[in-house]
Amino acid sequence: MNKLDFFYPRSRYRGEFIPEHIAFNLHFQYFAHQVSLLCGLQTNGKVSPIEAYHRLVDLWQQFEEYTALNLSDLNSHEATLDQIEIEEV
After folding, report:
1. pLDDT for res 71
2. CB burial class (10 A; 0-12, 13-18, 19+) of residue 6?
3. What whole-number distance in Å separates Cα of residue 75 and Cα of residue 88?
4. Residues near 88 by Cβ (< 8 Å), separated by ≥ 6?
5. What is the secondary structure of the chain as a DSSP string?
6. What does R_g of the chain's alpha carbons equal in angstroms?
7. Nearest residue to 48 (alpha-carbon basis) of 63, 56, 8
8. pLDDT, position 26
9. What is the pTM of this model?
10. Which pLDDT score, from 0 to 100, does residue 44 have?
11. What gap in Å lies between CA 58 and CA 8, rounded to an integer?
12. Low-confidence residues of the chain, pLDDT below 50?
């Protein structure tokens, strides 16, 4: 295992291989990874709770903007969260 795999783990996509689903999976994994890192930083005292909250709000807004742009594409293929698995600050 190299450093990149350790610090930026990825999971396989197990849903239908539709470009919109794969793109959503990428963004969702990025979002989840950033939230995980931010939680670790806050838990260990490297980031204040207020700063962590503001960063989480920013991450969520970025993710919502992405999903708002692509929601019609995802709905057209009947995507569900079970089929889907994201981003960095």
Report:
1. 58
2. exposed
3. 25
4. 30, 33, 34
5. --HHHHHS------S---HHHHHHHHHHHHHHHHHHHHHHHHHTTSS-HHHHHHHHHHHHHHHHHHHHHHHHHHHHTT--GGG------
6. 15
7. 56
8. 85
9. 0.66
10. 95
11. 20
12. 74, 77-89
> Which residues fall within 8 angstroms of residue 28, CB to CB, at 6 or more apart?
63, 84, 85, 86
Contact yes or no for 35/56 (Cβ under 8 A): yes
Distance CA 4, CA 75 (A): 33
Spatial distance between the Cα atoms of 63 and 60, rounded to a whole number of angstroms: 5
- List the chain domain ranges: 18-80
Report the distance separating Cα 67 and Cα 7, nearest Å: 25
Q: Centre a 10 Å sphere on the Cβ of residue 34 and count the other Cβ atoms it contains.
A: 20
